[in-house]
Amino acid sequence: MPSVLLIDVTKRFGRIVAIDRVTLEIKDGEYVCVLGPTGSGKTTLLKLIAGLVKPDEGEIRIGGKTVNEVPPQERGTVYVPQDYALFPHMKVIDNVAFGPICRGVEREEAYKMAMKTLKMMRLDWRADSYPHELSGGMQQRVALARGLASGAEILLLDEPLGALDARLRLELRYKLRDLVKDLGLTAIHVTHDQEEAMAISDRIIVLRRGRIQQQGTPFNVYRRPSNLFVANFIGGANFLEGIVTERDSKGSWVALREGIKVRTEDPDRLPGESVVVVVREEKVKVLKDEVSGTNLLRGRVVSSRFLGPFIRYGVRLTNGDVVRSRMLISKQRKSIPVDEEVYVYFEPRDAIVYQYPPLGLYKELEVI
Amino acid sequence: MEEGEYLCIIGPSGCGKSTLLKCIAGIWKPDAGEIYIDGKLVNDTPMQERGIGYVFQEIALFPHKNVYENVSYGPTVKGWEVKKTKTIVEEILNMLKLEERIDAYPNELSGGAKQKTAIGRALASGSKLLLLDEPLGALDAKVREVLRLEIRNLVKDLGLTAIHVTHDQEEAMAISDRIIVMRGGEIVENASPRDLYLKPKRIFTAYFLGETNLLVGEVTEKARGKSIVRIGSNDLRVKGKVKPEAKRVVAAIRPEFISITKKPKRKCDNRWLCKVKSLTFTGNIIRYEVQTVDGIPILIKMPSTDEEIEAQIGDEVYIEFSSRDVNLYPYPEEGLEKEISLE
Predict the structure, then answer these.
(1) Is residue B310 scored above 80 in pLDDT?
(2) Quick check: B272 and B232 in contact, CB under 8 A?
(3) A168/B283 touch (CB, cutoff 8 Å), yes or no
(4) What is the pLDDT of residues B284-299, one digit of tens each?
(5) pLDDT for B255-280, tens place per residue?
(6) In Å, what is the CA distance from B6 to each residue of A258, B162, B192, B266?
(7) How far is CA A173 from the centre of its chain?
(8) In chain A, is it the N or the C terminus that has fewer CB atoms within a 10 Å radius of its CB?
(9) Which residue in A has a C-alpha nearest to residue B286's C-alpha?
(10) What average pLDDT does range A18-45 have in this prediction?
């Protein structure tokens, strides 16, 4: 069974380096999400594996065999593009059954399989429609069904849920993963939706400007982001600038602007170093009353929004820094209104410390 | 809708949300009914005289004009005084934090900056009513999250009224004062984000907005503000009564109001034995899918903490939830499937 291996692959378009010395292994049966902002090289990465673009440097192997010179149709991959690319003159069901029939699957069997896949995409009722009679979201589901039914063992999915309504997207993402797993396929799924990536992938690859920033399980990428960009891109976070003032065996103290001190469990940074303290929004509690604890900072609520499962607050600290918090609605039934004096609190272990980036924090976090 | 209000319209594809916006804008003419803007009947008023700014999902800027020229287009065409135009355009660009990009051309801007320019252009003509059709739809999730708040703040700071169509429910909750839920060309519900999410009047709203568990059961007991509903072999205790007096009901429980434990400690209205079917880490939340002893699936969302994940697949656990977090609905006449259908 096939695994995918990229060794030092580079792809340029004119002066732009779309993929920059990427080395990557995807195991047989793995569900991998490639996550990154627009223009980070996600689609190019898929097309390289599909054989739709050729690498300028490096080697691509599928199932242990170098495929640099192998045409797309012989790679055992299927690329499901963002713009669906359905056959306009064919009915939905014929679109889906096309691949298996080309491979020599018996007609009856191919149509049975096609119908089954359409059913999973909740589109069996439109089997006899033509693509132009369907909404964008429906066409996307047909494209997905066609990919799944194609018989290829490696699915290359480019924003496969991008055209769908939020509600349907939520439902289909789990179905898609289950389907891939049930069929024993390998999937490489490109998305810019970090929640989607976390919810369904075995492994996440974070791409920025053609380079891999981090790869790991959703848990690891979320808990231990390798740099400030990843911390910002995956999950909301606060970025507090400061200077390390003390270090001991259990961690360090960091002075934020105007001398507000916060405690961290970071063992690495030395006194005098400029740092950024990262605290996830959901690790910050907003409290009306003082509690005992180390990182208890005074502030005033500047924004308070109900977001369904949680309330999102912005709290301006006495030094002017704004700290954002996501409080679960099940833990705090009533929102604290704007202008209220409050305390924000987070545990030292939830403060991740990074070296202050040489080009400045803003540049480092930029979503391009 | 009231002056100064920020309204969001949500609903599945094809529900008519964009059409509604286009009727207000004057792009479409209604076949029946009347549209009033500022007390004035506008059915026959052309779009450009309705005093509205319209922003599309597909960002349509003039590619050969820079940010300043794009934003000042309306006032210039209308023949406003150069000095007045400059003051207004600069103020808008400052508010949009685009003042440093005034010389940039659209192809030099990020998606977010482009869409902000389009909003600036819609505002520069002095429109007090802003119609936004999926204005963030073409942007990355991360950019969308930042920009949505900027748009709300801008609308509020300038005292504008906004109607914003989106398919992103979180976006709708984050920015609106009020949400309208549509389906099949009709308004299903109309309420504040909080009421809509916590106390939806319709099962469809509960289903469409966020995720929810919908359990079908029979009311077996009613006493002193509490009902008991039989769900399979479990009893569900619910605060309040069902209206009208239905026997067959649907209970809606949000997954974040249910918790999982192996060793029940505290007192709890509802505690059911279940088996863990799957668990998924999604960052700040862990999603559990469990099954009751009758095989009924239940979704649970718990905050992910640094401690070891409490339950594993196959484990027997107790799920706990409070009677006040359950909303009860009479079983829909046309069936549950039909009630939550997206079409």
Answers:
(1) no
(2) no
(3) no
(4) 888 999 999 999 999 9
(5) 999 999 988 878 889 999 999 999 88
(6) 37, 5, 11, 42
(7) 13
(8) N
(9) A199
(10) 94
Q: How far apart are CA A157 and CA B302, in angstroms?
A: 30
Fold of A4-228: Rossmann fold (3.40.50)
The mean of the pLDDT values for chain A is 92
Give A330's contacts in chain B (Cβ within 8 Å).
Answer: 256-257, 259, 325
Between CA A195 and CA A189 the distance in angstroms is: 13
For residue B6, what is the enclosing H or E element?
strand B6-10
Contact of A182 with chain B, judged by CB distance below 8 Å, is answered with no
pLDDT of residue A193: 86
Between B45 and B265, residue with greater pLDDT:
B45
Q: pLDDT tens for residues A200-253?
A: 999 999 999 999 999 999 999 998 999 999 999 988 799 999 999 999 999 999
Tokens 């679109």, residue located? A95
Model confidence pLDDT, tens digit, residues B60-100? 899 999 999 999 998 888 888 889 899 989 988 888 888 88
State both tokens at B272: 């059911």
- State what percent of residues in chain A have pLDDT above 90: 73
CA B213/CA B240 separation, integer angstroms: 18
Ordered by where they begin, the domains of chain B are 6-199 (3.40.50.300), 211-340 (2.40.50.100)
Contact B282 A326 (CB under 8 A): no
B117-141 burial, b at 16+ Cβ within 10 Å, e below that, comes to bbbbbbbbbebbbbbbbbbbbbbbb
Nearest beta carbon to residue A38 from set B140, B256, B303: B140
Characterize A229-239 residue by residue with b for buried, 16 or more Cβ atoms within 10 angstroms of its Cβ, and e for exposed.
bbbbbbbbbbb
For chain A, report the end-to-end CA distance as a whole number of angstroms: 36
The domain locations on chain A are 4-228, 237-365
Amino acid at B222: K
A236–chain B Cβ distance below 8 A for any pair: yes
The yes/no answer to whether this complex scores an ipTM above 0.95 is: no
Q: How many Cβ atoms are within 10 Å of B266's Cβ, its own excluded?
A: 7
Strand partners, A305: A312
Cα–Cα distance for residue pair A311/A333, rounded to 1 Å: 9
Q: Are B60 and B117 in contact (CB under 8 A)?
A: no
